[in-house]
Amino acid sequence: MAQDTQFNTGVEEQEEIEIKEPEEYRVILLNDNYTTMEFVVSVIVTVFHRSIPEATRIMLDVHRKGRGVVGTYSYDIAATKIGQVHQLAKQNEYPLKCIMERV
Predict the structure, then answer these.
(1) Spatial separation of the C-alpha atoms in residues 27 and 71, rounded to whole Å
(2) Please, are residues 81 and 47 in contact by the beta-carbon 8 Å criterion?
(3) Domains, the chain, ranges and CATH?
(4) What's the confidence (pLDDT) of residue 82?
């Protein structure tokens, strides 16, 4: 009589799953000729949680260079922050625009 010599050890083989980091996006404020510098600083402080000196430095980049990077985020967070900027600008009747670029 032949015996089955195969045993079930209770250990299953697992496939290796490759975990991919989410892509990151730079959020960039764009200069215009109407939005006040004070409003840009307040948006950077409110939406992006930057200190006033840091927000001022970013605002000056926007003013002098035409654009300023306010942060790097995953797609969903970047899109949410852009929406907040546009909403605040619209409520305050400014044409301030914000975009994102893949890092």
Answers:
(1) 5
(2) yes
(3) 35-102 (3.30.1390.10)
(4) 98
Distance CA 4, CA 20 (A): 43
- 36 is written with which tokens? 């006040």
pLDDT for the residue numbered 8 = 61
95 contacts: CB under 8 Å, gap ≥ 6: 32, 34, 35, 89
Q: Tell me the C-alpha distance between 78 and 26, whole Å.
A: 8
Instruction: Point out which residues pair with 29 in neighbouring strands.
Output: 68, 98
Written as six digits, the tokens of 88 are 């605040």
pLDDT profile of the chain (103 residues), mean per 10:
60 78 96 97 98 98 97 98 98 98 97
